[in-house]
Design brief:
The complex is a heterodimer of chains A (about 120) and B (about 120). With about 120 residues, chain A is mostly beta strands. Chain A has strands at about 5, 10-15, 20-25, 30-35, 45-50, 55, 65, 75-80, 85-95, 105-110, 110-115. Chain B starts with a strand and ends with a strand. Chain B is mainly β and about 120 residues long. In chain B, strands 2, 5, 6, 10, 11 and 12 form a 6-stranded mixed β-sheet that branches. A 4-stranded antiparallel β-sheet of chain B has the order 3-9-8-7, with no helix packed on it. The chains are: A mainly beta (about 120), B mainly beta (about 120).
C-alpha cells in the first residue's frame, strides 16, 4: 500500500545532541510537510517542501532544518535540541496542482515521538 | 487570517450515544474542509472532507456538511462506539494566495466513549 513512513517511531536524545528524523513516501506526492505536535495540542507546521523549494514558517526556530534529497525522502534535523523540543513530529504529504482548487488532502505518517532529556 | 474554532473537550459519551463536535471557520474565498482523527500514539488520519458549499462528507458513520452561510462543518455520528475514542481535528485549507494547500487546524477535541 502507498504510504508515509517515519523512522524511528521513538527517539530519545540528550539536551544539545543533534538528532535527525526521517520520512519517506511511496505516494509520489510533490509536497512534503513537517509538523510539531506537543501534548494535547494541534499540529504546528514547521516547514514544507513544494517540489524542491523549501518553505519555512515565520515562527520556526533556526534550530530546525530540513533536507529533501529526492521526491521520496525528507529529513528533519534538530541541531541542538532543547527540553522544549520534546514532542511528536509528524510528516505529511500531498499532491498539489496549482489552479485546480484547494482540495489538497494531506496524508500523515505515524509520527516520531522525540524525548529530549 | 484563516482560523478554525472547534468545540473544546473533553467529550465523554456512553456507547451508542449521539455525537456532535462543532467546528466553525473563518476564511476568505472557498476553502476545503476536513476532519482528521488521531488515535493514541498515532499520526492523523483523514476521516472525511468536503470541498464546496453544501457538500456532505461521510465515512465510518461520521458525517459533516459544509455550511457556507454559517461557516460551519460540524461532525456528527448517530451511535458512537468505544473504538471511536480519539482526538478529532477540524481543519481547512487556506483558500487564497500561493499557499492555498496548507492546513489550518483547530485545537482538537478529545472524545472518550465508555462501554
Amino acid at each position: 500500500d502507498a504510504m508515509v513512513i517515519q523512522n524511528p517511531r521513538y527517539q530519545v536524545t540528550q539536551f544539545g545532541k543533534p538528532v535527525t528524523l526521517s520520512c519517506s513516501q511511496t505516494l509520489n506526492h510533490n509536497v512534503m510537510y513537517w509538523y510539531q505536535q506537543k501534548s494535547s495540542q494541534a499540529p504546528k507546521l514547521l516547514f514544507h517542501y513544494y517540489d524542491k523549494d523549501f518553505n519555512n514558517e515565520a515562527d520556526t526556530p533556526d534550530n530546525f532544518q530540513s533536507r529533501r534529497p529526492n521526491t521520496s525522502f525528507c529529513f528533519l534535523d534538530i541541531r541542538s535540541p532543547g527540553l522544549g523540543d520534546t514532542a511528536m513530529y509528524l510528516c505529511a504529504t500531498s499532491r498539489v496542482e496549482q489552479g485546480l482548487g484547494a482540495d489538497n488532502e494531506q496524508f500523515f505518517g505515524p509520527g516520531t515521538r522525540l524525548t529530549v532529556l | 487570517g484563516d482560523s478554525v474554532t472547534q468545540m473544546e473537550g473533553p467529550v465523554t459519551l456512553s456507547e451508542e450515544a449521539f455525537l456532535t463536535i462543532n467546528c466553525t471557520y473563518t476564511a476568505t474565498g472557498y476553502p476545503s474542509l476536513f476532519w482528521y482523527v488521531q488515535y493514541p500514539g498515532e499520526g492523523l488520519q483523514l476521516l472525511l472532507k468536503a470541498t464546496k458549499a453544501d457538500d456532505k462528507g461521510s465515512n465510518k458513520g461520521f458525517e459533516a456538511t459544509y455550511r457556507k452561510e454559517t461557516t460551519s462543518f460540524h461532525l456528527e455520528k448517530g451511535s458512537v462506539q468505544v473504538s471511536d475514542s480519539a482526538v478529532y481535528f477540524c481543519a481547512n485549507t487556506r483558500a487564497v494566495g500561493g499557499s492555498n494547500y496548507k492546513l489550518t487546524f483547530g485545537k482538537g477535541t478529545l472524545l472518550t466513549v465508555n462501554p
